[in-house]
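ok so for the tutorial part 2 we go from a plain amino acid sequence to predicted structure tokens. step 1 is just haveing the sequence, like this:
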Amino acid sequence: MSNPAQAARLAAAANGFTETIAKHRHGITFGKLGTKQRCFESQVGQIYHYGPNLEEADSAWEADSDQNYLKMVKCDFNLRARKLFNGGDLVTWSDPASGKYVKFQPQNLQWIGNYDSNSVISTAQAISTPVIEEEDKLYWANAFGSGRHFRYTASTTSLIKHLILDQGSLPACPTYITNPWLELTFSLTPSADVTIYIDGVAWDNSTSKTTANRIEFRLSTGKVVWSLAAPRAFDSSGDPETGECAGQIRIYVNKKIKYCGVRFPKAWIDTAQFPVMLDPAVDYQVGAGADDARNYGSTHPGDGGYADMYTSINLGASTSNYYIAGIRFQTVAVPAGATVDHAYASFKLLSAAGDAPSLSVACEDADDASTFSSGTHEPYDAYLARTTAIISWSPTETTVDHWFGGAGETDEIDLKTLVQEVIDRPGWASGNDLVFVFWYAPTSLPAANTIRIFRSYEMEGNVSGPKLHIEYTEAAAGNPHYAYAQQ
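step 2 — the prediction. this is what the tokens look like for a chain of 487 residues:
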């Protein structure tokens, strides 16, 4: 999403809200001319306005003063991209507040073993004409040879790097490589006073380190300005059990140059459905990936495995697993004492299998819900205090990329009783965070898969994450108001 503020204006105007009442860093409040009706729109993970004058954030790539580069400068951070893919320092990511930067240059795609053997598949190619897609995507076709493409997607909070592999684009891995992984390497060039932290410890800039966790770039003040997200790969199946894979990051030094290798096990690549995306994303400060998460397992209602940072979330059950989804919406602008008239959550379908799943839905019964975390705040009802109100829902949507669940959409679901119970809590305040939990209601596994898979926060720069729409009437004035949030 290149300009979330513009998108919010268009959505609000379609409902008659044409007056801008207030700008917020994470949203906008609109009104209807001559009335007290209000509409608040927001999207988790997106910045609507930046700078002291609250200018509209826009992650679209635009021409640079040097014709060999493109730039993105209308956010809290700035990006400058070289058009020539193998020209060195392909992208410079800078922080205007501190003047510090980190530079990235893709290097090699290779098969690698236990770091004592490797086989280079391809080096970065001399592709000098990237295609700008949807304003915020830079795409280099065949960047690492035939069928191996590279794409940078800029959002208002992150820079997503995708290596896209077509069917048949990978050569066989040499037999002399043991425990093989597919690895994409980058050179890293941080500016002075920027320290790399691995697993919470400052890196010594010499010892090779491997982690499955996020790597942070901190200023001398301790502030985290960028982070390399925990890498993930995903195939085209849409199956979160087999179609996604966690990777590792290796940081090392070779001839005084810092390198980062993002790798994924060959065993997963061998069974993946192509095209495959390797996803070593970069976040500005800390992303909101854990605001949509899931549990799944063979015991009801699915407490066998927890994961966030997934590109898709399941609703329903397979023949072997129950699924439970947790969705957190931040800064929900509904005042205490309000009467909820309607509340809807809507999702963008990624894939579907079998009949409509029979689901139960509740809110977390908390004043201000925290983000999900393993073992303490998982989207499983044993970890969360649920609302007394629980509703039933059976989504039937099967058309890929259709929205479902919202007002006027397929499988419309009104969540007002759940939201009402939360905002009636004594500690609720406007701007608090709200969690919804969806789980498979039957206590026995189905004979055939009954699943609806929706796109999560991580998929393609958070333009398709779940949405929340709330209509309410204030307690005192009795005027209808509207609150919108999108994850």
